[in-house]
């Protein structure tokens, strides 16, 4: 059986960020008086094997980038908050992440906000979310010195869509998904809703599907609105799902259910299919339907998490009035400096 | 059948705050150059009859206090965020509340954080929660001009416990529940967990019960810790529930299930029983067991909500450097001023 499409692994996509991140880390180490490496601290307070392996990946990726990583295991969940406070206060810690779920309820949302905004590499702080939904790019819109970061999983999927050339660079930035239709199966606050919003803000028509209903995110005809609007289409039924998939250029799945499989027959010939669920949401025969298929996204997410950390360090330096000459524009200059170090 | 105990209605308890709130409102109106009344805006974006009747109560209570109330109905939930932004920006709006649930998922937690901290009468902003859990009383601990408010439902229950004399005023403030044992059935982030934390911070031994398990919140033997610690006791079984209720002086229910009834036989003779669920969680025969029984708490919650609003106005004035001589200590002076107005 020969297929027309290709499977693209997240690891290949993640590699495209290596050069940028490694150069940036070198600059930071060189510009720091003590030459210490940036430090990311991960908090693990569950016994989820998925979290364990995610933590291991994070460690490996950090090391490959010249970043220090420390896994802090918290046996009693109820002490996690105090441990986060310690890391918030510790100048030696540059980034903090938590392997969720911890409590598996709204207390997890509380914990997300406990991480200091300045060290929140996952981009879960309310300030980052609100800025994202409203297309606000800076924490300080007047002076534009501190970038508002994006939540790392939705950001990773955007970067994957760029890599897959779903974003058309002939269109002006901010409208590069104009004309594209996407279906996102998941409307969590962590991934699905922000992803649908980001894609719609970039010009796509996005159908957001959760267990209850289906919504349409769009900037209106001819992209008349500057940010996305949301419209309820009705209950999540097979008929409606099939209908919206008919013309979908992109199908993105994030269904957190072990045996869930997206019906291959709903996929348009040559569509781009991306799965970000821990479980494989597509059947193997997706390869016979999709032009490009990305079976998982975790490795790109980790790269984005570390990219966020470097931006946070820049923000902190900007707040202190230190220029690290480490913006994307300054990358070449930065690499020169790092060679001298 | 004659019972030894008494049923106490929330309306009677709420009345005890009338004088304080009315006097304070008069002072504010008098000290304001335009003499306008404080304005609370409620956002209703669901069709829940409970929310409707809560909104009506809020209106009636506001009017009885000389506060303006405006109910803003938002037909499309997806426009609610924009409407909140409008109210955040509007200087004529002093307080904002949302009738939850709106989406019934994590997007509701997002919306909670959209309300400006300065107008968040429900006390749901993360800053207020984090301060509450850590017993931080001021937003500006150095200057102590701006009080950190408490989430209004847990605060209402604390005020009810004070009214019922469960708080012993012979003990120093901060330890007034020392020696008391309480069971709280609900561990939501909105009520149950903050309530257990507040009570344990005040010296009680609190058993926090949710659908999965039972935890113990305490400051340790002889109140050796300055804030509560949490210990897992195990799964929520009838045996364990019965055991912890055996010596409980206070049983507080908030089970959001229509047909749930707390087993009357678990209640210690003469215990204090309080229900904050919309549904009556106690059987009628609770009256034969409890010394004091409070069947609902909503009316006290509304008083606390308005008390919070007045504190927020004070905070805003303090931030602007305006003294309104309206602290609790300044109440008598304030009443004098209001008479002149």
Automatic annotation (TrEMBL), chains A, B:
Q: Which GO terms describe its biological process?
A: one-carbon metabolic process; purine nucleobase biosynthetic process; purine nucleotide biosynthetic process
Tell me the ranges covered by the Tetrahydrofolate dehydrogenase/cyclohydrolase catalytic domain, including all copies: 10-122
KW Cytoplasm (keyword) present: yes
The subcellular localization recorded is:
Cytoplasm; Nucleus
**Which UniProt keywords are listed?**
Cytoplasm, NAD, Nucleus, One-carbon metabolism, Oxidoreductase, Purine biosynthesis
Q: What are this entry's molecular-function GO terms?
A: methylenetetrahydrofolate dehydrogenase (NAD+) activity; methylenetetrahydrofolate dehydrogenase (NADP+) activity
Q: Which residues form the Tetrahydrofolate dehydrogenase/cyclohydrolase NAD(P)-binding domain?
A: 151-212
InterPro entries reported in the protein's UniProt record: Aminoacid_DH-like_N_sf, m-THF_DH_NAD-bd, NAD(P)-bd_dom_sf, THF_DH/CycHdrlase, THF_DH/CycHdrlase_cat_dom, THF_DH/CycHdrlase_NAD-bd_dom
EC main class here is oxidoreductase
Key word NAD present in the record?
yes
| Region forming the signal peptide | none
EC annotation? 1.5.1.15
Give Gene Ontology CC terms. Answer: cytosol; nucleus
Subunit field text: Homodimer.
The family classification in the record reads: Belongs to the tetrahydrofolate dehydrogenase/cyclohydrolase family.
Entries under PANTHER family matching the protein? C-1-TETRAHYDROFOLATE SYNTHASE, CYTOPLASMIC-RELATED, METHYLENETETRAHYDROFOLATE DEHYDROGENASE [NAD(+)]
Described purpose of this protein according to its UniProt entry: Catalyzes oxidation of cytoplasmic one-carbon units for purine biosynthesis.
- Put simply, this protein is called Methylenetetrahydrofolate dehydrogenase [NAD(+)]
């Amino acid at each position: 059986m020969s297929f027309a499409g290709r499977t693209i692994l997240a690891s290949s996509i993640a590699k495209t960020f290596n050069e940028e991140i490694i150069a940036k880390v070198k600059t930071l180490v060189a510009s720091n008086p003590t030459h210490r490496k940036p430090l990311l601290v991960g908090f693990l307070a569950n016994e989820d094997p998925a979290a364990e392996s995610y933590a291991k990946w994070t460690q490996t990726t950090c090391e490959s980038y010249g970043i220090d990583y420390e896994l802090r295991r918290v046996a009693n969940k109820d002490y996690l908050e105090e441990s986060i406070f310690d890391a918030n206060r510790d100048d030696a810690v540059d980034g903090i992440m938590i392997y969720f779920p911890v409590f598996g309820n709204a207390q997890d949302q509380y914990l997300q906000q406990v991480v200091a905004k300045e060290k929140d590499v996952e981009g879960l702080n309310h300030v980052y979310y609100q800025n994202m939904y409203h297309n606000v790019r800076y924490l300080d819109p007047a002076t534009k010195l501190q970038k508002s970061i994006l939540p790392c999983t939705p950001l990773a999927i955007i970067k994957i869509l760029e890599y897959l050339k779903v974003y058309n660079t002939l269109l002006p930035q901010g409208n590069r998904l104009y004309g594209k239709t996407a279906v996102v199966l998941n409307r969590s606050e962590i991934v699905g809703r922000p992803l649908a919003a980001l894609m719609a803000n970039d010009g796509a028509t996005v159908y957001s599907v959760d267990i209850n209903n289906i919504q349409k995110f769009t900037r209106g005809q001819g992209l008349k609105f500057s940010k996305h609007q949301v419209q309820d289409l009705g209950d999540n039924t097979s008929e409606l799902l099939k209908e919206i998939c008919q013309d979908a250029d992109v199908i993105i799945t994030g269904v957190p259910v072990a045996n869930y499989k997206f019906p291959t027959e709903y996929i348009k010939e040559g569509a781009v299919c991306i799965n970000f669920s821990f479980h494989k949401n597509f059947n193997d025969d997706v390869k016979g339907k999709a032009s490009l298929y990305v079976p998982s996204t975790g490795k790109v997410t980790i790269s984005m998490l570390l990219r966020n950390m470097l931006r946070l360090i820049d923000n902190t330096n900007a707040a202190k009035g230190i220029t690290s000459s480490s913006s994307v524009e300054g990358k070449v200059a930065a690499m020169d400096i790092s060679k001298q170090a």
